[in-house]
Amino acid sequence: MMRLVATLVSLLMPMSLSAQEEEIVLGLSQAEVSITTNFDGSEILVYGAVKRDAPPPDIGPLGVVVTVSGPSVPVLVRRKEKKFGIWLNTDAVEVDRAPSYYAVVTSGPLNRVLTRVEDLRHKISIPRAIRSVGAPMHISNATLFTEALIRIRTRSDQYQVIEGGVKLDEDTLFRAAVRLPAALTEGDYAARIFLTRAGRVVARYDTVIDVRKVGLERWLFNLSRENALLYGLMSLVIAIGAGWGASAIFSMLRR
Question: What distance in Å separates the CA atoms of residue 89 and residue 109, rounded to the nearest whole number?
């Protein structure tokens, strides 16, 4: 038994030392994103270096994983079925917490850069980042609803997995571009950077990207929350004015 314990300690020592020997020095091209009326998306450059006090540990190749996560909120996912020629909502499952935006950018294939155990511990992949605890008793395949949510948001570029998107130079410098789509939820976006060796996380760095509405977008957003009646009346007036204007233009063109 003593030999077994000693062997386990000797196996774990290099990994614990590597976690202390390697650190992340990070930079962002922008720490704030402003959503305006003509906002059509943005791109954030994540760049950094691996700081070492000793030569790189010989426990496996270096891997880098970058994740950016938007605010997490509950999401109600419905399933539609065609009955009597009409598409109807049949079942529904509420996902407890799902990020409004989530991107995973890696230096190589995700299953090689990161083990399943580390993914479970740090909740890095998209399925791990979504929290879905339970479902109604009559629904036996609740995982299909989570898979549908991932599929829908992947199509709209809200969820991204970019394998090989992190560029490594001389096993020390790294950089990655993270695309933010036009449809962004306002809030704090958590950015995490992981260094891995042999699929295990040896260093981690966390920072925040501030995404806020500004200008007219901010004024309209605040008005809709603080004075819903005035916002509704103003929207109605704008709609009526736009309809009347379009009608007047068509009348002039017919003459």
Answer: 38
CB atoms closer than 10 angstroms to residue 199? 17
Look at the block and give the residue holding tokens 């605010």: 71
Please, what is the Cα angle at 91 between 86 and 93, to 5 degrees?
140
Tokens 């819903």 identify what position?
228
- Token pair of 80 as six digits: 């539609």
Whole-prediction pTM value? 0.72
Distance of CA 227 to the CA centre of its chain: 31
**β-strand pairing of 167-169 with 173-180:** antiparallel
For residue 35, give both structure tokens.
């959503």
CB neighbourhood size of 45 (10 A): 12
Q: Within a 13 Å sphere around the CA of 142, how many CA atoms are in the beta-carbon half?
A: 15
d(CA 157, CA 161): 10
Q: What is the tens place of the pLDDT at every residue in 194-223?
A: 999 999 999 999 999 988 765 555 545 554
Which residue, chain included where needed, has tokens 């130079």?
169
- What whole-number distance in Å separates Cα of residue 210 and Cα of residue 70? 10
Do 110 and 89 touch, CB atoms closer than 8 A? no
Residue 49 is classified by DSSP as E
Question: For 16-48, what is each residue's pLDDT tens digit?
Answer: 434 457 888 888 887 778 777 677 778 889 989
Rounded-to-integer distance, Cα 148 and Cα 55, Å: 46
Q: How many residues in total does the chain contain?
A: 255
